[in-house]
Amino acid sequence: MASIKSIAASSLLFATLSTACIDQILAPADDIVFASSSSAKDPLAWAGANSPYRAGPDVYGIPNDLPDGCSVKQAAYIVRHGSRFPDSGAYNGWVAIQERIQAAKTAGNLSAKDSLSFIGDWKTVLTNPTLQIAQESMTGYKEGHDLGYQLRARYPDFYEDGNQFYVWANQYASPINKSRVVQTAKAFMQGYLGEFADAYGTIVSVNSTGSVNAIGNSLGPSDACPAFASGAGGSSFSNDTDFEALWTPKVMKRINALVDGIDFTESDILQMPYLCGFESQITGRLSPWCDVFTDEELEYYEYSQDLHYYYGIGPGSTTPTNLLFLPFLNRLMQLLQAGPDQQGKGVNGSTFDIPKLIMAFLNDNQIAELTAGMGIFDSGAQDRLPIDKIAKDRIYNVANFITMRGTVAFEVLNCTSTSSSHGKKTTSYADYIRILLNDAVYTLPQCKDGPGGSCLLSEYASFISKRNAAAGNFNDYCNVTTAGHPAIVGGASFFSDLTLDFLQFVAPH
């Protein structure tokens, strides 16, 4: 028979373990296994924007655990769509490579060895291109579903079963059910609400070109910005091409030494890492193309993508990129400052509860545009990326935040602090904002002294407000001339007004 002392000790141990396990979330950090290939330790990590979702590294050495004395009272997640099938242009490039390989094989000229020995039997992995092109893949569905499960567990007090829940999604494609962004939102709803998704979940599809009222008031503001459209194809995109010329010839020579009967071009070389990332997430199995490159070669490929986004549609762009999402950010900060339990304007004279967890789904370009204006990549945090070598210590790395299902999160932390004066303790409370990219903490150069690298919410909201005011009117810097456009754009008024004429409602099934 156990002694009272041993029972007490066991009870204490159980209580200690129970307390320790209270905040242990069961959702894994990553949705898939990141496997090694025969030639690279971590090939999918170098796929950049073509990589499946991966939790980002602690670039500032700050854990994403909830800081002591803090609780999360609200959050907003801006999320790229999940992994997908290729668009038609990329797919046609794959088919062209396949046809050249098969032509050499048919002529009896093809001979390949080592890591290329598979190419004689290689076919593109799309089994029904008409159905699959540009749609979400099974990995993309898993990423969206897993995110819903993860956030429901992370913020258990944000939602109760039986309440209505809204998320917002960039429409992106027509018809709506062909939008991979909306498809990701549907998968998220299934993960977040589970069995009750259809009964209580609604996806608000935001059509960035659906009305003049959507100008500067959508999840795709560049779609209504003529100044951006006219400059997006300019010289800012040449930096990645210049860098590619530094490394692709050497890799092309090595790869062509493994094959006879076909000469791969520099364009082909750039397609192969793309195939590594896409084929892997489409099939759920590591692509044989991942065996072709070393980690060093893939790092060059990834840095080319960094340059593409940084100078094309990121902080280094000559277009109004870093201004496009300022009205959106300004409105979002106003919502977060207003606090939870706010009511929005619903249809037919009704109201709705603005979620404590605000979810918005969009595309990779919008993630690049959004982060360009947030302040996290300002000059105090990041020098301009060199185009003649890899910046090893760079913070701007698209593999860490513009992956498939890449995530920009704003957490509102309510934190306590205690001070003593004349022997009397005083407890005070303050709201801070913490920024997470793919679940890793990113700090602001000018404001990072709060708990866990956070910034006072009021201070960050003021920073965004001043930056938005300094930028001027969206219509001016975007050269908007559309008749009837709003004098002052709404930014993100759709989060609190469901009656806007460019919104449509979509069921989660």
UniProtKB/TrEMBL annotation:
Gene3D superfamilies: Phosphoglycerate mutase-like (3.40.50.1240). Pfam families: His_Phos_2 (PF00328). InterPro entries: Acid_Pase_AS (IPR033379), His_Pase_clade-2 (IPR000560), His_PPase_superfam (IPR029033), Histidine_acid_Pase_euk (IPR016274). Keywords: Disulfide bond, Glycoprotein, Hydrolase, Signal. GO terms for molecular function: acid phosphatase activity; inositol hexakisphosphate 3-phosphatase activity. The active site is at H81 (nucleophile), D364 (proton donor). Its EC number is 3.1.3.8. It is an enzyme of class 3 (hydrolase). Residues 1-20 form the signal peptide. Disulfide bonds join C70-C415, C276-C290, C447-C455. The keyword Lyase does not apply. Belongs to the histidine acid phosphatase family. This is 3-phytase. The lineage of its organism: Eukaryota, Fungi, Dikarya, Ascomycota, Pezizomycotina.
